[in-house]
Each structure stands twice: as structure tokens, then as C-alpha cells.
Amino acid sequence: MFTKILIANRGEIACRVIATAKKMGIATVAVYSDADAGARHVKLADEAVHIGPAPSRESYLQADRIIAAAKQTGAQAIHPGYGFLSENEGFARRVEEEGIAFIGPKHHAIAAMGDKIASKKLAKEAGVSCIPGWNEAIDSPEHAVEIARNVGYPVMIKASAGGGGKGLRVAFDDKEAFEGFASCKHEALSAFGDDRVFIEKFVEQPRHIEIQVLGDGFGNVIYLNERECSIQRRHQKVLEEAPSPFISEATRKAMGEQAVLLAKAVKYQSAGTVEFVVGKNQDFYFLEMNTRLQVEHPVTESITGLDLVEWMIRIAAGEQLTVTQSQVRRDGWAIECRINAEDPFRNFLPSTGRLVRFEPPEQTMFQADMSQRYGVRVDTGVFEGGEIPMHYDSMIAKLIVHGQDRNDAIQRMRAALNAFVIRGVESNIPFQAALLGHPDFASGHFNTGFIAEHYPHGFHAEDVPHEDPDFLVALAAYMHRRYRARACGISGQMVGHEITVGEAFTVVVLGPEGQHVPHEVTVSDYVDGAGSSNVQVGRKSYKISSSAHLGSIRVQGACNGMGFTAQIERGLPGQPLALRVRHNGTQIDTLVLTPLRARLFALMPYKAPPDMSKYVLSPMPGLLVQVAVKPGQKVQAGERVAVIEAMKMENVLFASADGVVKEIKAAQGESLAVDQPIVEFE
């Protein structure tokens, strides 16, 4: 067994590998860029080596520097994590040639599965179900139309070297096939340096289901059940679960056996994933094989009790699998939500900056410890006070729950999302809460088009309707009365002139443009020794109790005998006395007032925000890489104005109306804040 390994990655996956290595008594070496000098994975590792500037192309993608770091520190093996160099056949070969073990498959397996055209040929030869289509490179749009007609519309036009949704189009007729071919070819050449394009049948109402496999150097391969990964936004996975709520036991077995056939055909040695697209009648077809550890591997670990990172290390060290197919268990149900630094209410634009507050829900399951079940696990590479840099992907954490069954897992995840406190950057937690609360998700009736179908115009606050809005009002009143009672108790009041806290309140729910909604509420205490209060909102009555510390954001308690977790914080810009309440993805801003103050507040005029219509504002924190206009220039609606780079993505800003540029307010190369003016028009 190895005594020291190097992790050629960063963030949560580097921390994940370190956890298992420590359990196994293996020393670890981290590598880091300028931006990650104080990162969590650097602090957790036994040693750390600086490998370059912040951009990944100058650090984490520098194979020479990573190999040199391994030699310098005496690391006997390199774990690539996922992303970066994890599926780079050349890197794996270099590592092997240098006499260092690569904790992943052999380079020949990466090469065989890395080319989508070659991998489909190999899969077909191995007896794996493949989608009808044309797996040779197509040389012209006319040829693409001819093939599409033969396969039968709709078809999917895909780049051979594609990934992450790039170089992919769906065509429903000849015109779309002709145009889609040209677009895919150009996009593929730009993104991957490889313009080969192929065509396959588009499976309607498709589900994305993948099979986890493990193979060793002795020819043993097993499959570890499946993961349902159909909840995707723009071909990027958002939420994953294991097992799938859709497939039958017979389909599960057939898919697993075919995945094993493919893994054996390429002499696969490590953890890997065979991805399938599954039709509405459970007909399934091979998509691709990911020759690395997947982001969503914790859900498989939860239901099988196997540490996949440990098995990757053991297999790379030459050990044989000791788990047989008949011993692979499927225990309970697991769900993973990817918690990303992005603003779902601004079309999921990246959100970078400092994590002012970072309080994950209480963990009862942990990385590298497979003995704990039916609880919550948080995989993260960040900490409170740390930075979410603009140079890498947007993931803050992976939130994993394990339940007795699917309904139990969904409820555990909803509670865990309610308890997850993130401040300083925006996160997609409201969106995840909306997905989990959607009836079609709860019933298991969804496919890869779920998000596009239900949120075709983006995600908005009204897309997260609360099942009982009055509960949020009641909770605001309950907490406000607790704040007031504490203040009266510590204020040193004069005997005989004490201020008592009343029971009648008006909770004003603050709306946009001054459209506030008042609710008459009474809060009276129960004499039960548990600190409970009866809160009356209209005709509804809520018995609420909580022992939450009044300075904390997270509030846990019970309402009418049912447990709840919510987030409540005091103070908003321009409203220092306001209370913001968050629960199940819904957020309300309130003022809890005495009836007299509420009547006076209703007389206050609405102060409109300043008119910013003549400005182009930065929609996110990021680096201003280009200003495409200059003072005095006439600009038409839809014309490019600026380009901002954040989290490995370039975001182009366009003019919303015709106008003349008056002034450039920000310089190229400047780091921008949200809503910072870039260009002013006359």
C-alpha cells in the first residue's frame, strides 16, 4: 500500500480524497494555485506544493508541475479527482511512465472511452445497447440531413469530443439538421479543437441513468447499482439520487450487466461510470463512459456502504476486489444536491466573493466513514470567511442525505436545505428547494427536460409557493416577540415603570414598489414550561416553540407538533428593524409592528430606487475582460457592450435599447461587483 499520495485537484474533491487517505494512514500532498493558497484542501493535507497562478490553465492543468510536485515530495501515486486532468489520457500515461501510480484507470481505457465515436463502436462490439445513428464523422450539412432522414427525426447532433452541453443540438427536421450540423462543428472546433460531429436518434422523454462500476487488475468487475441524474439544467446535473425511482429490477440488472461487459472490454481498473439514456418504455442505450470518479459518487456510497475512493486507492496499489456482485447491497435511498455559488433569480449567474457566513446543517454521516446511515453528509472545500474565487467552478458544497425510502430522503433533504446557512454569496438553495417540493419530482414523473419544461422562462420567486404562507407570518411574529421579551428582560427597567410586551401585532409583509401586505396577529404564551406560544393569524392558529439562540440565523423548533427548521435574520438595507424569514425555498421580508405603528407606517410614502435604465450594470461579480464600446459611439439594441468572466465562463452583456455611449464607468481588467455600472448612455 502507498504511504503518500498527491491529489492533483482542488476544492471539495481534494478534501474528499484526503479524508479517505487519512483513514487508511496514507500521507497526502495538496497542490494549489495563487488563488488557493489558503484553501481548505491545502490546510487538510500533510504537505502542499504551489503550482502556479490562479487560472487553471496555468496551474491545475500543468501536468509537468504536478508530476514534479509528486517527485519532489516522494508521493508514490496521484489521484486526479474529477475535472482538470482526470480524464486526460496523456497525463495518465505520463504519470505511469514516471513510475508513479495513477489512481484511476489505465491510460488505454481513458483513450478508448474518451472519444465518443470510438467508444460507441467498442460498446457495440461488446454487446452494449447503442442508440441508432451514424457513428462516423460527418463531412457536410447535406450528408447530415441524409443521415438524419435515415435515422428518423428527432435526432441529436453531437461533437465527438463534446461535453457539458457544448457541441450539441437537437433537430426535428431537415432545416434544423442542416443548421445544427454547422453550429455543432464550429462550436466543437472552438471548444475542443476537434470538429468531428456524429448523429444519433434522440430518445423522447429521456432519463439520464448511470451505472457505477468497479474493476481491478485481476479481471474482476462489479456494478454498484444505478444513479438517477435526469434533473439537469442545460445538460449540467443539479440533483442526483440512488436508486432510480423509474427503472425496474430487470432493467437495473440488464443495465448493470452491460456496463460490466463494457468495462471488461477495455480492461477497466478503478471506479468508473457507464452512462445510459433510458426511454419512457425502459429501453436503454449507451451514452458514454466516464473514466473517473463522479461528482455524485456519495449517493452510491450511501446505499452500498462502500468507500469508492478507498477502492480506487486499493486497486491502484494492486489489490484485488473482495466484494462480489452478490454482496453489493442497495440499502435505503440517497439524494445529493449540488450547492452552487450562483443566483437562481438572476438566471443562475455566478456569484463570487467572501463567505461571510457558512453554516452547513449538522452532519451525522461523514466522508470516508461508511458505518453511519440515515442522516446528512456535507462534502465541501470551503469554510466560513473563505473566498469563492472567480477562476474555478461554482460548487460550494455537495449536500447528501440517506433515508429509509425515497419520501424519507426527500423530507431529510428539505430539512437540510432549510438548515444550510450561506451568506456573502448567493446560492441555488431556493431552486433546489423548489425542485424537491415539486409534485412531479415527488411522484418520480420527470425526465431530462424537467427543468426546461417547468421553468422555461427562468426561475422566479413565485416559482417557490409555500404550502402555508401564514406560517411564515406567524414565525416572524413569534420570533419578534421573543426578541422584545429578551430586550425588556435585560434593559434594567425601573421598578413600577416596566414596559411589558403586548400580544397584538401587525406583521407587514414587504412587497416590491411599496405593495406591502399587513396581517393582524396575536401572540400569547402557553403555561407549559416549554416556552411555547400560540400565534393566531386570521383564523389559523399555530402553537410554536423553539429553543433557538436569538443571535443565530438558523431556527429549529416545532409547530403544531411538527418539527421545522427555518432561517430568520434581522436587518435589511434601509430597514434595520425588518425580519427576513426563509423556509422551504420561500423568502419573505417583514416588519412586525404594534397596531399603532402599523397605521403610521401605512402613511409613509414609497421611495422609488434611482433610475438605472441608462446604465449597463454588471449582473455578477467577475472580471471585466472587454469593453466593446467607446464614448460617443452609437449602439443598437442587441449589440455587444462588454464581456465579464466568472467561474470559467464568459458572459456577454448586450445593449437593451438603442443609444449613444456617454461614459465608460469601469476599466478593462477591473474586478466588478454586482450591479456595478460599466457603461452609461446619454
Walk me through what this model shows.
- By secondary structure, the chain is an alpha+beta fold.
- It folds into 6 domains: 4-103, Rossmann fold (3-Layer(aba) Sandwich); 132-201, ATP-grasp fold, A domain (Dna Ligase, domain 1, 2-Layer Sandwich); 205-331, ATP-grasp fold, B domain (D-amino Acid Aminotransferase, Chain A, domain 1, 2-Layer Sandwich), CATH 3.30.470; 332-464, D-amino Acid Aminotransferase, Chain A, domain 1; 469-491 and 499-601, Glycoprotein, Type 4 Pilin, CATH 3.30.700.30; 615-681, OB fold (Dihydrolipoamide Acetyltransferase, E2P).
- The chain contains 17 helices and 39 strands.
- An 8-stranded antiparallel beta sheet has the order 14-13-10-11-12-15-22-20, with helices on both faces.
- α4 (89-97) packs antiparallel against α5 (107-114) and α7 (141-151) packs across α8 (174-192).
- The protein is globular and about 90 Å long.
